[in-house]
Design brief:
- The complex is a heterotetramer of chains A (557), B (328), C (276) and D (544).
- Chain A is α/β, with parallel strands linked by helices and 557 residues long.
- Among the domains of chain A are: 72 residues, no CATH class; 190 residues, Rossmann fold (3-Layer(aba) Sandwich), CATH 3.40.50.
- Helix content of chain A is 36%, strand content 24%.
- Chain A has a 6-stranded mixed sheet, sandwiched between helices. Chain A has a 6-stranded mixed sheet with strand order 16-17-18-13-19-20, sandwiched between helices. In chain A, strands 2-1-4-5 form a 4-stranded antiparallel sheet, covered by helices on one side.
- Chain A is globular, with a radius of gyration of 26 Å.
- Chain A starts with 19 loop residues before the first strand and ends with a helix.
- Chain C has 12 helices and no strands.
- Helix content of chain C is 76%, strand content 0%.
- Chain C has 276 residues and is mostly helical.
- In chain D, strands 14-18-13-17-15-16 form a 6-stranded mixed sheet. In chain D, strands 1-10-9-8 form a 4-stranded mixed sheet, with no helix packed on it. A 4-stranded antiparallel sheet of chain D has the order 4-5-7-6.
- The chains are: A alpha/beta (557), B mainly alpha (328), C mainly alpha (276), D alpha+beta (544).
- At the B-D interface, α2, α3, α5, α7 and α10 of B face β10, α6 and α12 of D.
Chain lengths: 557, 328, 276, 544
C-alpha cells in the first residue's frame, strides 16, 4: 500500500537555491528528422530534497534533456546547441571532460529503464558497485566492500554478500534495478536522475521500487529528476511536475495543480486519456458461452539430450489446468504479471501452441482434437492482434498484401479480398491509400490498426488481443481502445483481452480472470473484482496500480 | 553436481555428439575416394619403373583393394576402433606413425598462427574501433583487406626472396637445420627460427578476418546500454573500452576461432608446400595424389578429432569468459 | 533513394564499386580490347612489361599477359559468381529448413554442416577437383561444396530468430503453409545478411580458384587469373610480371568486392535495425 | 610446385657388347681412387630428393628418388666411370670365360655390413638369385641368362650362364643391382621386410633417420672398406615440394646438390652466372631422355601415318627447347637419340624430322591424303594428354595446341593427376595423343625396343608400347639387333629400323632432353661416375 499519497499542498520548493537549474536548453536533432530540435528552450529547476517529474509521450525530448545534464547525448546524431545547465553554481556545459567525469556518478547519478541490459553481463554486481566507489573516492578495499554491502542493504536486497558475487543474469528485474539504485547512491549524490526506471518492471515490483526511491530520497535529501510517461507514477511520487511536448515544456507546477487542475489543453488531454479505475458496467444479459477452456495444461521443456532423446533439464509449467469461459459478445480480460502464463494461454487458444492436456471448446467443438486440415473451417473464426506494432507486420510486404493474404488463403477471390481490405481499412480509421504503402511508413498506433484490419478481414467471431495497447503512448492508447470498443459493439465480437495494466482492463473488460504462475487465482465480473477482490494476490495487484488514489479522487470530483 | 562434475559430463556429451560427425566423415570420404580414377597400385607400378600385371595384381591383393567396398570399409572401421589406422600403401608404414610425425609440425604452425592472428586481430580491431573513421581505422581496414586478398603463395615466395635470400634473417624452408641437427634447447630455437615465416604468411590471411570481426564486435558492444551506465558512473573512456566493452566483444571472436580451425588445417597446404613445412596439409595432398587411401582417411580422422577437440576447448574457454553460459 | 545515399556515405565502398565496375567493364569488353585468342603466341617470350608492345609483358611462350588478364577476368568473375550462387542457394535451402523446423531436422542438417566444416576445406576442394578431373565445372563445384556451410549457419540463425516473430505467427494463425511462410515472409527479411555474405564469398571463391591453379588443378583449356598464376609461378624469380600482375588483379578485385560488401552491409542493415 | 611430382623412373642399364674387356681397366680405376685421400675430410652435404622416395628398397623399385639415396648405403659389385668403363667395387676383379658362360668375381676382403656382419659371397648369391632375379623390376631381364651362382669360398662368386650376356656387365652398379644382407632378408617376405625403411648395406654411409616429409639422414660409415673414405661426415637428403623454394635453398647455400632437374631450368639459366653455383649435364649417360608424342595408332585420324607425319613437320622443336626448357636439349632427328652415334647405331631420318617446321608441306601432305578441312578450317579435333610432371609439360601442351592449329588440328588439353593419367594411357588405352618422355638408356635394346615391339604391347604395364604399333619387319629387326655381336652389322639393322620408324612415326620424337645437375661450388668430386647422382659419393667433399 503506498502509505500516503503526496497531498495537494506539498512543500513548495524551499527558498534556498535550486541544486540544478536548466536555463533555455536547446538540443539539435540530426538532419532529416521530423523536427529541428529535440529539446527547444527548456528551463526548469530542481530543488534539493524535491522529486520533479518530467512527463511526456515518446519523442517529447524528456529523456534527452536528462541525458544532456549528464553530458551523455548520443554524440554524432544529437548535439547540445546552447543553454545553461547550472549545478551548484557551475555551468556543466562549460566544464572540462575530467570535471564532468567527477560529477557523473559522484554528484549527479542516473538510473535507466532496461534493468536487463543496463548492467555489464560478464561482471559481478560487487565489482560494478566497487568500481564507482574506487573511481570517485579512493578508499581501501575493505572499506569499499563494507560500503557496498551497506548500500545493498539500504536498497532492501536479501543476502547482500550473495548479491555481491552474483552476475546480473542471476537476479530478477526488480533486484537488478535495486542494484542499479545502490550503485547510483553510492557516493551520496546531490541529484539522482531516474529515466523511466520502473517502466519495464511488473506492476508489483514497480510499486516497491517507487517506494524505495522515495524513502532513499527522503533519507539522503537528494534531488530526484524522475522521467516517466505514466501519469499514475507521477501521481504517486512527484512533488512537482513538468509536462513536455515536442521538446518544449507546456506546463510546470505542483503535482496537485498539474494533475487535478491542468491549464494547458495538451496536459488536459493526457490526464483525460488515462483510463480511470472505474470498472465497466457488467453486461446485463448473460449470453451462452462461445469459447470454453477446460483444464488446459501447457509445459515448456528445455534442454533435452541428443536428438531429443536425453532427459529434459528444465520444465516450466506455463498453464496449469486453466479453466475460463468466454460468453458471446462479451470481453474476457486475462490479467497477470509477466510469467503468469497469460500469453501462453492466448497462443494456445489460437492453436499457435499445442497443448499438453485439456480442451478448448469453440461452439461445442474441441479444437485441440482437430488436425491441420479439419482445423481449416475454424481458422477464420478465431483471430489475434499482437503487442509490438513494429514486429507484427512483415516489413517487406505492402499493407494491402498483409490484409488480403488471409482471405485469399481461405479461398476468397483476389478482387473480393481487396475490396474487403479497403473496407476494413476504413473501419479501423485509415484512408484507403494505405493499401499500397509499407509498414515502416506508419506510426505505432496506425500499425496496430492495420493489425486489427488484418484480423477482422477474416470476419472472426472471437478476437484474441494480446496486450494490444501496452506499447503505445497513452493518448494513442486511448484512441485504439475506443476503436476496439466501437468495433466490438458494432460487429458483436467476443474478445479475449490480455493485459498487465489493470486500468485498461477495467475500461475494456466485462469479466476478468487473474492469473499467477500459470493458474487462474480468481475470475469474475470486473466491478465485483475491483470492489471486493477475494484473492490476496488480486488485492495486491490492485493496490500496486500507480496513482490509484489520484484516480479515485478524480472520479469523485 | 559440482562444477567440475558438470564440466566432465558436458565434455563427455560433446564427445558423444562428435562421434557421428567423425564417422560420417570417414564413410563419406571412403566412398568419395573410390570415385577417383586409378589406385595406389597404379601409382606404385608407375613409380617402380615397369611392373608386370601379375605383380600389380599381387599388390592389389596384398593391400586388400580387391575386396568389395563394404568389406574394405568394414575392415577399416574395425581396425580404427582398435586405434589401428591401417597401412600406408606408398610409405609402407603404419598410418598412425606417419600421421603422428606430421601432427607436431601442424600443431606448431596452427597454434602459432591462431595466437598471432587472433592476438593481433584483437589489438588491431580494438585500435580501429576506438579510433572509428579516423585514418588509423581506414589504414587498418585496408591493410586487413589487402593481406586477406593477396594470394598466400605470392606472399610466401616474396618473403623467402626478401628475408632469407637478401636479408639472410631466416632460413628459406624446412622445419629444422638439417646440417647441424641441434639438440635440446638449440633445437627448439632452431625450429622457432624456421617457424617465423610460415606463421607470418598464414596468419596474415587469418589476421584480416579477426581484425574485421573484432572491429564489428566492438562497435556492436559499444552501443549497448551497460556502456551508457558505465559512462554515467563517471568512468574514463579507457576503462570503459578495456574493461567493459573488450571483454564482451571477445566472446564472438573466441567462437569464431573454433570454427576457423577446420579451414586452418586445410588452408596450410599452400604454406606447407612453399615453406617445405612437414604438416598434415602437405601429407594429405600427396596421399591424395598417390591414392594412399588409408593415409588420407587417417588424416581426415585426425583432423576431425583435432577440430572437435579444439572446438571443445574453445567452448569451455567461452563458458569461463561468459558466466551466462551454463556448462552441461 | 536513401539506400543509395547511405551506401555512398561509406567512401571506401564507393572506391570498391568503382574498381569493381572497371574490372567488370574490362571483362565484358575483353574481346574488343584483345581480339586475338589469349593463348596465341603473339610475340617475343619473356619480354618485361612495356617492351615489345606488351603492356604487362609476355610469358614464357610469348603470350600477352594483359590479354590473358582481360579474358581471364571474365572467367574468374564467372567462377566466383556461379560458385557463390550455387553455395548460397544450397546454404539458404538447408539453413532455412534447419532454422524453421528445428527439432531433429535441425540436428541432422547441423551435423551435416558440421561435418563439412570439420573436414579441412581446401583439401576437400582439392579432393573434389582431383576426382572430377580438373575442369572449370569441377573447380566451381569444389568451391561451392566448401563454401555452403557458412551460409547455412547464417541463414539458420536468421530463421531461428524470425521464426517466432509475431508477423510470422500471424501467418500461422491464418493457416499459411510452412513453405509459403518461409519463402514469402521470412526469407525476404534476411536477404541483407545473405547478400553481404554472398558478396564476400565471391571474393573467397576467386582466392580458392587461384589456390587450386597454384597447385596445378586449374582448367588447362580456359584462361583465368588462376591459370596465369599457375603458369607464371615457376618463373616468378626470372619473369616476376607473369604471375604478379594477375595476382594484383585478384587482390584488387577481392578488395573491391569486400569493400562493396561492407557498403551493402551498412546501407541495408541500419534500416532494418532501426525498425525491428 | 608439382613440377617434379614423380621424377622419371630409371631404365635398365644398357647392354654394351664390347670386345676389349679386360681386368686392366679395373686396375686403372683403383689407382685413381687412392689419389682422393689428400683432399680435406668432414662436413655435411645436403642434397634435394624430390619427390620423397616411397621407400629405401632399391632391390624392389627403380623409382628415381630411391636412386638418389640407396646407392650411398648399398654397394654394387662394380661401378662405371664417366666413359662407361667398369670400376671395381665389392668385386676386386672379375674374369669372363672364353665361351662367356661363366663369370668369376674375386670379392674384396674385410668388408663388413653396417651391423658388423661380414660380407661374403653368400650375400652375392642370395642378392642376385633370391632377390634381384625375383622382385627387381629389371632384375629378371638383366640376369635372365644366370642359371646359378657357386660360392667355392667366402671371397669368390662364380656366375653360370646359359648364354653369353655381355650386356649383363653393365648391370652391376649399386643402383642397378644392390648387394643386400642375406642374414637380414633370408626367410623373410622380401617385399614386406622392414629393411625397406631401415636399410643396412656395406656402402660409405649408414642410414640413421628418416623424418617423412623432411629429410633422410645418412652418417659416415666409420669402418668403410675403402681406406680413408668417405670424406663427408654426413649426407642429408631434403624434401622440398616447391620448385621456387628449392631454388632459394640452393641460392642461400642451405642445399649443395640438386640433380634430375630439381632446380627449374629457368633458374639454372639465372644462377649459372654466379660463381658459387655450378651446373653440369654429365652423369646422365646411362639415361638419354627423349621428349615425344605417343600416338594412338588404333584411333582415327592418328591411325593414318600421313597425319602423324604432318604433325611431326608442323612442330618447331627449337622453340620448345628455347622457351620451355630454356636452351637445354637437342631437336630430335630420328626415332633414336643421337647419343647412340658413338655406338654406330644412330642414323638421321630428316624427311619427317625437318630442321625447322614446314607448315605448308604438312598441309599439302594432308590435302594430298584427302584429310581435308571443314568450313572453319578444322581437319580433325582431338584431346592431347599431358604427362602430369609439372608446369613445363603444360606449356608444351599449350604450344602444341597453337602449332597444330596451323595444320587444322584442333586440340583440347587434358591434364590429370598421375594415377588417373597412368590408368588412362597404359591400362585403358583411352587417349589419342599423349605428350610424354622416355629414357632411351645407353642401348636401344632395353630403352627403345619396348616402345615398338609387338611383344611389348602389355596392357596395364606402364611405359611400354602404348601406341599398340605392330610391324612384323620391325619385330624381326629388333630381335636380330639384340643378339648381333658385330657392331657394323648391328648399325645396319638399326639404320633400317630408324628408316621405317622415321616413315611410320607411331611415336613422334620432339627433342633429346638434357637433365641438369646443379651444385654449390664448395662441393667437390660429386659427379665422378656414369651413374651421376645415383653414385655413392664416397669421394665427394666440402671445401670451405
Amino acid at each position: 500500500m503506498n502509505t500516503s499519497s503526496k497531498n495537494t499542498d506539498s512543500v513548495v520548493a524551499t527558498a534556498d537555491s535550486p541544486v540544478l537549474r536548466i536555463e533555455n536548453l536547446y538540443v539539435q536533432l540530426p538532419l532529416g528528422s521530423e523536427r529541428r530540435y529535440a529539446v527547444e528552450g527548456v528551463s526548469y529547476d530542481l530543488a534539493p530534497k524535491e522529486i520533479l517529474c518530467v512527463v511526456g509521450e515518446s519523442g517529447s525530448g524528456k529523456s534527452l534533456t536528462a541525458r544532456a545534464v549528464m553530458g551523455l547525448l548520443p554524440a554524432p546524431h544529437v548535439q547540445y546547441e546552447k543553454g545553461q545547465i547550472v549545478f551548484q553554481g557551475e555551468d556543466l556545459t562549460k566544464v572540462s571532460e575530467a570535471r564532468m567525469r567527477q560529477v557523473r556518478g559522484g554528484e549527479i547519478s542516473m538510473i535507466f529503464q532496461e534493468p536487463m541490459t543496463a548492467l555489464n553481463p560478464v561482471m559481478r554486481i560487487g565489482e560494478q558497485i566497487d568500481e564507482v566507489i574506487r573511481f570517485h573516492a579512493s578508499q581501501p578495499r575493505k572499506l569499499r566492500r563494507q560500503l557496498a554491502l551497506q548500500l545493498l542493504e539500504d536498497v532492501q536486497l536479501p543476502d547482500p554478500s550473495r548479491i555481491m558475487s552474483a552476475y546480473p543474469h542471476e537476479l530478477s528485474g526488480g533486484q537488478r534495478q535495486r542494484a542499479m539504485i545502490a550503485m547510483a547512491l553510492a557516493l551520496e549524490p546531490k541529484v539522482l536522475i531516474a529515466d523511466e526506471p520502473t517502466t519495464a518492471l511488473d506492476v508489483t515490483t514497480q510499486a516497491q521500487i517507487l517506494r524505495l526511491i522515495k524513502e532513499l530520497q527522503a533519507k539522503h535529501d537528494t534531488g530526484v529528476l524522475f522521467i516517466t510517461h505514466d501519469f499514475g507514477v507521477v501521481a504517486d511520487i512527484a512533488d512537482r511536475v513538468a509536462v513536455m511536448q515536442h521538446g518544449k515544456i507546456v506546463e510546470i507546477g505542483s503535482v496537485d495543480k498539474v494533475l487535478n487542475h491542468p491549464e494547458h489543453p495538451y496536459t488536459q488531454a493526457l490526464t483525460d486519456a488515462v483510463p480511470s479505475l472505474i470498472p465497466r458496467m457488467a453486461k446485463e444479459v448473460v449470453s451462452a458461452p462461445i469459447l470454453e477452456v477446460r483444464n488446459l495444461v501447457k509445459t515448456y521443456r528445455s534442454g533435452g539430450g541428443w536428438f531429443g532423446l536425453g532427459k529434459p533439464v528444465k520444465e516450466v509449467n506455463a498453464c496449469d489446468s486453466v479453466n475460463v469461459v468466454l460468453n458471446d459478445a462479451e470481453t474476457l480480460g486475462i490479467v497477470g504479471e509477466s510469467g503468469s502464463g497469460k500469453s501462453t494461454l492466448a497462443r494456445c487458444i489460437v492453436r499457435l501452441l499445442s497443448t499438453d492436456a485439456g480442451e478448448i471448446i469453440y461452439r461445442g467443438q474441441d479444437l485441440c482434437a482437430l488436425d491441420r486440415s479439419s482445423m481449416r473451417p475454424y481458422r477464420s473464426k478465431i483471430q489475434m492482434v499482437f503487442q509490438d506494432p513494429y514486429a507484427s507486420l512483415n516489413p517487406r510486404a505492402t499493407v494491402g498484401r498483409i490484409i488480403t493474404e488471409g482471405p485469399v488463403i481461405l479461398g476468397e477471390s483476389k478482387s473480393e479480398a481487396q475490396s474487403r481490405a479497403r473496407e476494413m481499412l476504413e473501419l479501423v480509421g485509415l484512408d484507403a491509400r494505405a493499401f499500397e504503402r509499407y509498414p515502416h511508413e506508419f506510426s505505432g498506433g496506425q500499425r496496430q490498426r492495420i493489425g486489427l484490419a488484418r484480423a477482422l478481414a477474416l470476419q472472426p467471431e472471437v478476437l484474441v488481443a494480446d496486450e494490444p495497447v501496452s506499447a503505445l503512448d497513452v493518448s494513442i492508447q486511448a484512441q485504439v481502445l475506443d476503436l476496439l470498443a466501437d468495433i466490438r459493439d458494432r460487429l458483436q465480437l467476443s474478445m479475449v483481452f490480455i493485459t498487465h495494466d489493470l486500468r485498461v482492463a477495467a475500461q475494456v473488460c466485462d469479466r476478468i480472470a487473474v492469473m499467477r504462475l500459470g493458474q487462474v487465482v480468481e475470475q469474475g465480473p470486473t466491478a465485483q473484482l475491483f470492489d471486493n477482490a477475494q484473492h490476496p494476490y488480486t488485492q495486491e495487484l490492485l493496490d500496486a496500480v500507480p496513482g490509484r488514489e489520484w484516480s479515485r479522487l478524480r472520479a469523485l470530483s | 553436481m559440482s562444477q567440475a562434475g558438470k564440466r566432465s559430463r558436458y565434455v563427455l556429451k560433446r564427445l558423444l555428439h562428435a562421434i557421428p560427425v567423425v564417422l560420417a566423415i570417414i564413410v563419406v570420404n571412403f566412398f568419395l575416394l573410390q570415385l577417383a580414377e586409378g589406385d595406389a597400385v597404379d601409382v606404385l607400378a608407375g613409380e617402380a619403373g615397369s611392373a608386370t600385371p601379375e605383380y600389380m595384381a599381387q599388390l592389389r591383393e596384398k593391400f586388400g583393394l580387391d575386396q568389395p567396398l563394404p568389406v574394405q570399409l568394414g575392415v577399416y572401421m574395425k581396425n580404427m576402433l582398435s586405434f589401428d589406422l591401417g597401412y600406408s600403401f606408398r610409405h609402407d608404414m603404419p598410418v598412425s606413425q606417419l600421421v603422428l610425425d606430421r601432427l607436431v609440425p601442424t600443431l606448431l604452425l596452427m597454434v602459432s598462427t591462431i595466437t598471432l592472428a587472433v592476438g593481433f586481430g584483437i589489438i588491431l580491431g580494438l585500435v580501429a574501433a576506438s579510433n572509428l573513421n579516423t585514418w588509423k581505422d581506414n589504414v587498418i581496414s585496408i591493410f586487413a583487406l589487402i593481406s586477406y586478398a593477396t594470394p598466400l603463395f605470392w606472399v610466401g615466395l616474396m618473403m623467402i626472396v626478401v628475408f632469407s635470400l637478401k636479408l639472410r634473417w631466416f632460413p628459406t624452408s624446412g622445419m629444422e637445420n638439417v646440417a647441424m641437427f641441434y639438440e635440446g634447447w638449440d633445437r627448439v630455437k632452431d625450429i622457432a627460427h624456421h617457424l617465423v615465416m610460415p606463421t607470418l604468411t598464414l596468419s596474415l590471411f587469418y589476421l584480416a578476418l579477426y581484425t574485421r570481426f573484432m572491429r564489428a564486435s566492438m562497435l556492436e558492444q559499444a552501443s549497448m546500454d551497460y556502456v551508457t551506465t558505465a559512462r554515467a558512473k563517471g568512468l574514463t573512456e579507457r576503462r570503459i573500452v578495456f574493461v567493459h566493452i573488450l571483454r564482451n566483444a571477445l566472446l564472438p571472436v573466441v567462437t569464431m576461432a573454433g570454427v576457423q580451425v577446420g579451414s586452418l588445417i586445410g588452408g596450410s597446404v599452400i604454406v606447407e608446400s612453399v615453406f617445405a613445412w612437414p604438416g598434415l596439409g602437405m601429407l594429405a595432398f600427396e596421399a591424395l595424389f598417390s591414392r594412399d587411401l588409408n593415409l588420407l582417411l587417417g588424416i581426415f580422422l585426425l583432423s576431425a578429432l583435432l577440430v572437435v577437440a579444439i572446438n571443445l576447448v574453445v567452448d569451455l574457454l567461452y563458458s569461463f569468459l561468459d558466466p551466462r553460459i551454463e556448462v552441461g | 533513394m536513401s539506400f543509395w545515399r547511405r551506401f555512398c556515405r561509406n567512401r571506401s565502398a564507393v572506391v570498391g564499386l568503382i574498381i569493381l565496375a572497371i574490372v567488370v567493364l574490362i571483362a565484358a569488353s575483353a574481346h574488343l580490347l584483345f581480339p586475338e585468342d589469349p593463348f596465341k603466341l603473339v610475340g617475343q617470350s619473356m619480354s618485361p612489361p612495356g617492351e615489345n608492345g606488351f603492356l604487362f609483358g609476355s610469358d614464357t611462350l610469348g603470350r600477352d599477359v594483359a590479354a590473358g588478364m582481360a579474358h581471364g577476368a571474365r572467367v574468374s568473375l564467372l567462377i566466383g559468381l556461379i560458385a557463390t550462387t550455387v553455395a548460397v542457394s544450397l546454404g539458404v535451402l538447408l539453413g532455412a529448413f534447419a532454422g524453421y523446423f528445428g527439432g531433429w531436422v535441425d540436428d541432422v542438417l547441423m551435423r551435416v554442416t558440421e561435418m563439412f566444416q570439420t573436414i579441412p576445406s581446401f583439401i576437400f576442394a582439392i579432393l573434389i577437383v582431383a576426382i572430377m578431373k580438373p575442369s572449370i565445372n569441377s573447380v566451381i563445384i569444389a568451391i561451392a561444396v566448401v563454401s555452403w556451410p557458412a551460409v547455412a549457419r547464417l541463414v539458420r540463425g536468421e530463421f531461428l530468430a524470425m521464426r517466432n516473430r509475431e508477423f510470422v505467427q500471424a501467418c500461422h494463425i491464418i493457416g499459411m503453409s510452412d513453405w509459403r511462410i518461409m519463402v514469402r515472409e521470412i526469407l525476404p527479411n534476411c536477404l541483407s545478411p545473405i547478400i553481404v555474405t554472398g558478396s564476400l564469398m565471391v571474393a573467397t571463391a576467386i582466392l580458392i580458384e587461384s589456390g587450386l591453379a597454384f597447385l596445378g588443378l586449374g582448367d588447362p583449356n580456359i584462361i583465368s587469373w588462376g591459370f596465369q598464376i599457375g603458369a607464371g609461378r615457376t618463373v616468378l624469380r626470372s619473369a616476376w610480371w607473369v604471375c604478379t600482375f594477375p595476382g594484383i588483379a585478384i587482390m584488387l578485385t577481392v578488395l573491391a568486392i569486400n569493400l562493396v560488401g561492407e557498403g551493402l552491409n551498412d546501407a541495408m542493415n541500419p534500416r532494418l535495425r532501426e525498425r525491428t | 610446385m608439382r613440377s617434379r611430382l614423380y621424377s622419371r623412373p630409371e631404365r635398365p642399364t644398357s647392354i654394351v657388347v664390347k670386345r676389349a674387356l679386360s681386368s686392366v681397366c679395373l686396375a686403372v680405376g683403383l689407382i685413381a681412387s687412392t689419389q682422393a685421400l689428400s683432399q680435406t675430410a668432414g662436413g655435411t652435404m645436403v642434397m634435394i630428393a624430390q619427390p620423397e622416395p616411397p621407400s629405401l628398397a632399391p632391390y624392389l623399385s627403380t623409382s628415381g628418388p630411391i636412386g638418389l639415396v640407396a646407392p650411398k648405403i648399398y654397394n654394387g659389385l662394380l661401378d662405371y666411370d664417366l666413359d662407361l668403363n667398369t670400376v671395381p667395387e665389392l668385386a676386386e676383379s672379375y674374369t669372363v670365360s672364353d665361351d662367356g658362360l661363366t663369370v668369376t668375381f674375386a670379392l674384396r676382403e674385410g668388408v663388413k655390413w653396417h651391423d658388423g656382419e661380414p660380407f661374403t659371397s653368400a650375400d652375392v648369391q642370395f642378392s642376385i638369385m633370391d632377390v634381384l632375379k625375383q622382385f627387381h623390376p629389371r632384375g629378371p631381364n638383366s640376369f635372365r641368362e644366370v642359371s646359378s651362382i657357386d660360392t667355392p669360398d667366402e671371397l669368390t662368386a662364380v656366375f653360370n650362364l646359359d648364354a653369353p650376356a655381355p650386356y649383363m656387365m653393365r648391370a652391376f652398379s649399386a643402383y642397378e643391382s644392390p648387394i643386400v644382407p642375406r642374414h637380414l632378408l633370408e626367410g623373410e617376405d622380401i617385399r614386406a621386410s622392414d629393411l625397406a625403411n631401415n636399410p643396412v648395406g656395406t656402402g660409405p654411409f649408414k642410414f640413421v633417420e628418416w623424418k617423412k616429409g623432411q629429410y633422410i639422414r645418412l652418417d659416415k660409415n666409420e669402418d668403410y672398406w675403402k681406406e680413408g673414405l668417405p670424406l663427408l661426415d654426413r649426407i642429408v637428403a631434403r624434401i622440398i615440394p616447391d620448385a621456387s623454394t628449392r631454388t632459394a635453398a640452393m641460392e642461400s647455400g642451405e642445399v649443395h646438390y640438386g640433380a634430375f632437374g630439381a632446380i627449374p631450368n629457368i633458374d639454372v639459366v639465372r644462377m649459372r652466372e654466379s660463381d658459387d653455383i655450378g651446373v653440369t649435364t654429365d652423369g646422365y649417360a646411362m639415361i638419354n631422355p627423349m621428349a615425344l608424342i605417343e600416338m594412338n595408332t588404333t584411333k582415327a585420324p592418328f591411325d593414318n601415318p600421313v597425319m602423324r607425319q604432318a604433325i611431326s613437320m608442323a612442330i618447331d622443336r627449337q622453340f620448345l627447347i628455347d622457351n620451355i626448357w630454356f636452351g637445354y636439349g637437342k631437336p630430335a632427328t630420328s626415332a633414336m637419340t643421337s647419343n647412340f652415334e658413338p655406338l654406330g647405331l644412330y642414323s638421321a631420318t630428316p624427311e619427317f624430322y625437318p630442321e625447322s617446321p614446314d607448315v605448308d608441306a604438312a598441309n599439302a601432305l594432308l590435302d594430298e591424303a584427302g584429310i581435308t578441312a571443314d568450313a572453319e578450317g578444322t581437319r580433325a579435333s582431338a584431346v592431347v594428354d599431358l604427362i602430369p610432371y609439372g608446369e613445363d609439360w603444360r606449356r608444351a601442351g599449350e604450344y602444341m595446341k597453337q602449332a597444330l592449329a596451323d595444320i587444322g588440328v584442333d586440340l583440347e588439353l587434358r591434364y590429370e593427376d598421375v594415377p588417373t593419367w597412368l590408368k588412362r594411357i597404359y591400362a585403358d588405352y583411352d587417349f589419342e595423343l599423349n605428350v610424354n618422355y622416355f629414357y632411351q638408356l645407353p642401348d636401344p635394346v632395353i630403352g627403345v625396343q619396348r616402345h615398338y615391339g609387338t611383344d611389348q604391347i602389355r596392357q596395364g604395364t606402364p611405359f611400354v608400347n602404348s601406341t599398340r604399333y605392330s610391324n612384323s619387319d620391325i619385330d624381326e629387326l629388333l630381335a636380330a639387333g639384340a643378339i648381333e655381336v658385330d657392331p657394323t652389322a648391328r648399325g645396319e639393322i638399326y639404320a633400317q629400323i630408324q628408316a621405317i620408324l622415321g616413315e611410320e612415326l607411331p611415336v613422334v620424337n620432339l627433342f633429346e632432353m638434357e637433365f641438369l645437375t646443379v651444385y654449390n661450388e664448395k662441393l667437390k668430386d660429386h659427379t665422378v661416375s656414369a651413374m651421376g647422382a645415383y653414385h655413392s659419393f664416397d669421394r665427394a667433399y666440402i671445401e670451405e
